[in-house]
């Protein structure tokens, strides 16, 4: 396998690019900074969508769709928002061969256009809360693109809500943060995220509070996996989102927005991948068990097909590989690269002994198992290895996070991982100094790990790291 992928320890960025190419997850698009997501990569995204969408609906939000093109004037209504996004905007100035009367922005995010329609749809307190989500593409012109991590166009979900009170908006932003995002990332992706508050310097343009979920990648760097924002009344005032209160007066709504994207695929690769390729957590995997015919012989293909059907009947997402005209070694390497959690290898020799071989992607173990016991063994392996992936990632993060007391020590520690340092030892000036050295405050947390409501509270802990 060393000939297939550059070893992670030798060159982590090259390993990442090799894996994406060799596992056939994605390719570079024809315009700089764009990507083509291949079927193997898109199948993972579809599973992410399904898991996330179910949680979003449980949280009460409904899916809708809003235009890709946004009038330039919309963005200018919220000053901080347009200033924050200006360097990343793609602007259309011509259409149908003629100059446009007003330039239009290719959607970088949808607070402004959704705000416009919230103002139309909300009249009374009875219309609130208004809970919307859309699955879409967005465009942010990236100077240093990297597939899945930073591309000029990417896929995501973005939620937008309007509420009657500040407290209701606050509670809903936190609900999404924990019950949708954290639950999915920990329980399905198997990534032990740190959930915290962004500093004022790092928060979303136009927000009053930004909450984040930070994952540690296999090289010790941080990846922002998702964010949830309280927008206060900033966008409600800019777009006149008002409602008739129960008391009879007219008040501005309080809004939130929140999003995750195909960046999570990059996080999946860098959190769980190894020198043999991708390792997909069983709860996420589009193919959980891959039944392979090693070599055709008396009854081998029939036995493999029967195992495929039995696994499917047991609720396992399963596929059959009976391409005996392709060398088995080549097919096995491909399965390793794609990260199928379990392989069931069926060959004439093992079948004669009444066995199939169960191969676990987590650790590469190969175990001959009686054919009658294969389904039970596979189900047990899927449950165990989901937890083992999480435990391994958590142990890595803990071993690469150090407790320090000064900014200088924190910056030094980010050469190999993260630093936990009192926020009082960093502060606004220290944060600017760290940024100048390529280090950011990933988030702020209370000493017990809970999420603070302000960066001005006492005894906060800052998590510092280098990031993607």
UniProtKB/TrEMBL annotation:
Task: Write the signal peptide boundaries.
Answer: none
Q: Where can this protein be found?
A: Cytoplasm
Which Gene Ontology CC terms are recorded?
aminoacyl-tRNA synthetase multienzyme complex; cytoplasm
GO BP annotations, alphabetical order: prolyl-tRNA aminoacylation
> Pfam family example for this protein?
tRNA-synt_2b
Reactions this protein catalyses? tRNA(Pro) + L-proline + ATP = L-prolyl-tRNA(Pro) + AMP + diphosphate
Q: Which UniProt keywords apply?
A: Aminoacyl-tRNA synthetase, ATP-binding, Cytoplasm, Ligase, Nucleotide-binding, Protein biosynthesis
Aminoacyl-transfer RNA synthetases class-II family profile domain segment(s): 32-281
- Subunit-level organization: Homodimer.
Function statement: Catalyzes the attachment of proline to tRNA(Pro) in a two-step reaction: proline is first activated by ATP to form Pro-AMP and then transferred to the acceptor end of tRNA(Pro).
Name of this chain's protein: Proline--tRNA ligase
- Organism annotation: Asanoa ferruginea
Encoding gene, per UniProt annotation = proS
